[in-house]
Amino acid sequence: MHGINTNFIKNLSIDENIRQIVDEIDIKILEVLERNARTKYVKIAEAVGLTEGAVRRRIKGLIEQSVIKRFTIETTVKLEGMVLVKTESTRTREATASISKIANRVFETSGDYDVAALIQAYTIDELNYKIDEIRRLPVVLSTNTLIKLKE
Fold first, then answer.
1. Which H or E element spans position 147?
2. Sheet holding 105-108, edge to edge
3. For residue range 101-129, what is the model confidence (pLDDT) as tens digits?
């Protein structure tokens, strides 16, 4: 694929069915939005060689197909923690769904823990609050929390 960052394609967190409906232009649009989710449709159109209306329709389609889940900002947070969660093996998906309402990112894992949740916060109180929210979930059997000290 000429001019496209193929590593970006590999790193898209979408399933194979969705990946089949995303074409080269959609990927270029996603790359622009990944760099800056506030990029104006006109600027995206210039970057991908389409009209503003065509870009608007493509982005609407990507949202409807759940390729784009949300538009967000990335800030410099002061604190990050990883909460490792044990749950009953039959309830891992339920745990992941519940935890995703609290944490910034959630991953199903293999090994001693079933779920890993990345939590970002500006204060230690906010971080502790989120950790406690996860611990109180009925699907959570136990947790182990790691706090990032430095990059």
1. strand 140-147
2. 105-108, 115-121, 79-87, 140-147
3. 999 999 999 999 999 999 988 888 889 99
- Measured between alpha carbons, how far is 101 from 139 in angstroms, rounded to an integer? 14
Q: How many domains does the chain have?
A: 2
The CATH number covering residue 36 comes to 1.10.10
Instruction: Give the domain range for residue 130.
Output: 79-147
- Same domain? For 102 and 56 the reply is no
Q: How many residues does the chain have?
A: 151
**Angstrom distances, CA of residue 116 to CA of 58, 67, 147:** 33, 23, 13
The residues, ordered by sequence, that sit 6+ positions from 43 with a Cβ below 8 Å of its Cβ are 32
The CA distance from 105 to 88, in Å, is: 20
Residue 48, classed as helix, strand or coil, is helix
Is-above-0.85 flag for pTM? Answer: no
Q: Would you state the structure tokens that stand for residue 142, as one six-digit string?
A: 């136990």
Structure tokens at 150: 């430095």
Residue at token pair 């949300």: 70
- Residue in this structure with the two tokens 């590999």, named with its chain if needed: 10
Spatial separation of the C-alpha atoms in residues 15 and 149, rounded to whole Å: 33
